[in-house]
Amino acid sequence: MLDAPQNTPESDPHKLVTAKGRRLAWVEKLCRKNLRLCLRLLPARFIFYLIYHRNIWQGAESRSGTGSDLHRTEKLRAILPGIVRELDAKSFLDIPCGDFNWMQAVDLGVDLYIGGDILRVIVEHNRRQYANEWRRFAVLDITSSPLPQVDIVFCRDLFIHLSNADVLRALENVKRSQSQYLITTTFPSQPHNTDIPTGLYRAINLERPPFALPPPLQVIAEESFAELPDRSLGIWKISDL
Fold first, then answer.
1. 71 with 156, same domain?
2. 232-237 and 152-155: which strand pairing?
3. C-alpha to C-alpha distance for 196 and 188, rounded to whole angstroms
């Protein structure tokens, strides 16, 4: 005869939710007292879950932040399909894909789109709402997960929220994928790169140390924020990184 299940958080769904809620409340209390210490102690997955869960970036349309609003991506949505055609790309990894708010309005013209995100809750939502035979979603951490080999790795508005060490880990991981092109956020006029704990924000110039990437093949000014005129997307051939 099997023993009756123990009344533990792991076996009782209600208590599991309660336990998670208590942990989240404890973390939020710690972060209010010392945000930088909190961010240095927590794994990235937890940090970005907290940001998403509490809509800390205060996006009106998207919990992925105001940069994912449709009016912020109007120019990018218009030109991105042409860039994909110019690069003769048939496969596209969008990491992080976030909640797919603006990308769903883009016809990339590829045979395979993969949306990757560190948060399982986002990936599962996107699978239910948007997945089809050519559009897939996967739980991926750009700093450590094995990445699929694709023609384009599209990484918008992520490195600006990662520590320098995490950006370097991400770049090495992208290179290991043996993909063709990297399209990612950069600020070409930024004179130097300050460091932050993962989860905060700063402008980043990938051509400056400690990243020191070669000049990109192309720079596209996003023109998405009037207060950030230098905000751009750079295109690099990954084999040159």
1. yes
2. unpaired
3. 19
Taking each helix axis from N to C end, the angle separating 44-53 and 120-130, rounded to the nearest 10 degrees, works out to: 60
Residues 133-153 have pLDDT tens digits of 999 999 999 999 999 999 999
Range of weakest confidence among 62-66, 85-89, 179-183:
62-66
Domain that holds residue 25: 13-42
Split into its structural domains, the chain has a count of 2
pTM: predicted TM-score of the whole model, two decimal places: 0.82
pLDDT in tens, 45-70: 777 777 777 766 566 666 666 666 77
SS3 track for 111-172: CEEEEEECCHHHHHHHHHHHCCCCEEEEECCCCCCCCCCCCEEEECCCHHHCCHHHHHHHHH
Specify whether the CB–CB gap between 30 and 40 falls below 8 A: no
| Same-domain status, 88 and 143 | yes
Q: Has residue 181 been placed in a domain?
A: yes
Question: For residue 93, is it within any domain?
Answer: yes
- The token pair at 118 is 């560190």
- Closest of 31, 39, 79 to residue 197, by C-alpha: 39
What phi, psi does 58 have (nearest 5°)? Answer: 55, 45
- Indicate whether 102 belongs to any domain: yes
